[in-house]
């Protein structure tokens, strides 16, 4: 399923409207009705009886959706207090029409920057945030209102529904525009979006701001604009095929994982086991002489080969069956400088992680000039910032206008610059290929696994990807599938997880996938 930007969403709408398949007014009516349905599905107690809502409408079509919701709730007998930011005669046409329909039955008050005191009633007030959606173009300046919505969302007794996006949050990036303190930012218990999820629902702080996400179909046929290449979520039905065809072990590839020196081999051993578990036919650890005994004592199914230097690696790579390499976990800077160029010169599918990335922080171009399209870089944000400092800076700087630079933009720019697949780790892992394709593995909402932030988890991910590459899966798909499986393993284990536990979960995850 695609994750759209505001521009991609409005292009999809335009495509269907211009083709005469639907009108803007119909889309707005469906968006409002879908919002009410989603509210009643989340809180069934609101379906019976009359309740009270405060509806905050903004100056664009997000506000238009708010007028529709107000009308539908009033028709159910609810009492509505509706506030409008800006002038009715400046509303765009569809929003204006819904404003006029609302005016036939209810009041419109002017929204000012003061806390709103909903009249005391029995039972709770439902807040509807219809101020800004995909059209947010500058910081949200009503700080008293923002504080009030944020506090209401954090209060377990009070319910806040955001239409399309909690207002003030950028729907492309999941970032707050401007520099308001966290308690002066809006939030919601439920965010209802239309057609497709927007990137900002998944990226950065978006999930925390949105609370829970509901997606409503509004009957758009055009998934996106023709020719657009939006980011896609990794989901079970988009995973690369991980089932093994019958065959000899050599049919499933041979991964070589390079270790660091004595006392520093644990990380690479985690990678090697992951590569084996995900189905590489053979996995060898390339070990310096001084660490041979240590590795031999720990490993059984993983093979061992002495690789002291670049020359030894060249010799090992004379075996054409070695088709995937993994360098970085525990490798150490010196070995990284010696072995990474030799690995890259072989043209093999290669995962570079950890030390294999930071070793080149002084001169990233020296690394980039050797990379090729079958390489996958797996930096976390700190490693990313060392290799791509200017791109990382765009993500750090407070955005003053929308849409703000997103982690998708960052990974895409980095991948184009270095010519390899870049997997930027996080709860919102973004994986970009140099041709512009982007996958997002979302460990947010019901897939949230904060316990996966544990020592060695990244080494396991690098190994999973190396194993999938060994099995002949293309780099972008291998990285996306590896990231998805990694999170599923963590979900299956639950809190208390340590990196050694991850691989043991894989057979169960694969079984559930029907593999
Ligand atoms: N266009 C369509 O066909 C549909 C749009 N829908 C709704 O329309 C929304 C998008 O509508 P719009 O493109 O009109 O955008 P918005 O309604 O999100 O906001 C745009 C308006 O807000 C102003 N604005 C932006 N940032 C501001 C700020 N910080 N302070 C004050 N004013 C600010 C802009 O100048 C513009 O007037 C979606 O999020 C969705 O809720 C839905 O009705 C579904 C169909
Ligand atoms: K909103």
TrEMBL record:
Q: Which classification does the entry list for the species?
A: Bacteria, Pseudomonadati, Pseudomonadota, Alphaproteobacteria, Rhodobacterales
Binding-site positions, AMP: 425-429, 458
Q: Which keywords fit this entry according to its UniProt record?
A: ATP-binding, Isomerase, Lyase, Metal-binding, Multifunctional enzyme, NAD, NADP, Nucleotide-binding, Potassium
Q: Where does (6S)-NADPHX bind?
A: 61-65, 133-139, 164, 267, 330, 380, 459
Q: Which GO terms describe its biological process?
A: metabolite repair; nicotinamide nucleotide metabolic process
- Spell out the family assignment given in the record's similarity comment: Belongs to the NnrD/CARKD family. Belongs to the NnrE/AIBP family.
What is the name listed in the Swiss-Prot or TrEMBL entry for this protein?
Bifunctional NAD(P)H-hydrate repair enzyme
Q: Which cofactor does it need?
A: K(+); Mg(2+)
Q: Which residues form the YjeF N-terminal domain?
A: 9-226
**Co-factor remark:** Binds 1 potassium ion per subunit.
């Amino acid at each position: 399923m695609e994750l759209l930007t505001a521009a991609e969403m409005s292009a999809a709408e335009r495509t269907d409207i211009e083709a005469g398949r639907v009108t803007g007014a119909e889309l707005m009516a469906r968006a409002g009705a879908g919002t009410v349905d989603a509210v009643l599905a989340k809180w069934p107690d609101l379906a019976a009886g009359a309740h009270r809502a405060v509806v905050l409408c903004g100056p664009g079509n997000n506000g238009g959706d708010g007028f529709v919701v107000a009308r539908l709730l009033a028709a159910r007998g609810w009492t509505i207090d509706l506030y409008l930011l800006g002038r009715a005669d400046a509303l765009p046409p569809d929003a204006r029409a819904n404003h006029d329909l609302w005016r036939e039955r209810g009041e419109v008050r002017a929204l000012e920057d003061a806390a709103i005191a909903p009249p005391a009633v029995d039972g709770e007030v439902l807040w509807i945030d219809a101020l800004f959606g995909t059209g947010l173009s500058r910081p949200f300046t009503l700080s008293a209102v923002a504080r009030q919505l944020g506090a209401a969302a954090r209060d377990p007794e009070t319910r806040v529904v955001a239409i399309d996006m909690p207002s003030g949050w950028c729907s492309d990036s999941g970032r707050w525009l401007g520099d308001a303190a966290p308690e002066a930012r809006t939030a919601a218990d439920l965010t209802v979006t239309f057609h497709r999820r927007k990137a900002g629902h998944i990226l950065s702080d978006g999930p925390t701001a949105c609370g829970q996400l509901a997606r409503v179909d509004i009957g758009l046929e055009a998934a996106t604009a023709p020719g657009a290449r939006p980011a896609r979520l990794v989901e079970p039905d988009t995973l690369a095929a991980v089932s093994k065809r019958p065959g000899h072990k050599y049919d499933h590839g041979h991964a070589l994982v390079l270790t660091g020196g004595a006392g520093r081999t644990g990380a690479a051993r985690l990678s090697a086991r992951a590569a084996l578990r995900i189905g590489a036919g053979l996995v060898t650890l390339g070990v310096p002489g001084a660490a041979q005994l240590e590795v031999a004592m720990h490993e059984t199914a993983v093979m061992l080969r002495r690789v002291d230097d670049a020359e030894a690696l060249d010799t090992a790579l004379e075996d054409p069956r070695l088709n995937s390499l993994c360098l970085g976990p525990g490798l150490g800077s010196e070995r990284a400088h010696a072995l990474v160029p030799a690995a890259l010169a072989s043209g093999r599918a290669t995962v570079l992680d950890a030390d294999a990335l930071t070793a080149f922080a002084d001169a990233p171009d020296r690394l980039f000039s050797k990379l090729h399209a079958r390489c996958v870089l797996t930096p976390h944000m700190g490693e990313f910032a060392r290799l791509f400092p200017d791109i990382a800076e765009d993500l750090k700087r407070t955005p003053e206008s929308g849409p703000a630079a997103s982690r998708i933009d960052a990974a895409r720019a980095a991948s184009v610059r270095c010519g390899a697949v870049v997997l930027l780790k996080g709860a919102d892992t973004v994986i970009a290929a140099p041709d512009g394709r982007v996958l997002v593995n979302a460990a947010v909402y019901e897939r949230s696994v904060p316990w996966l932030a544990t020592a060695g988890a990244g080494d396991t991910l690098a190994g999973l990807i190396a194993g999938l590459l060994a099995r002949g899966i293309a780099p972008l798909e291998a990285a996306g599938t590896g990231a998805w499986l990694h999170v599923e393993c963590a979900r299956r284990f639950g809190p208390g997880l340590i990196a050694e536990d991850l691989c043991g979960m894989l057979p169960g995850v694969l079984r559930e996938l029907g593999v």
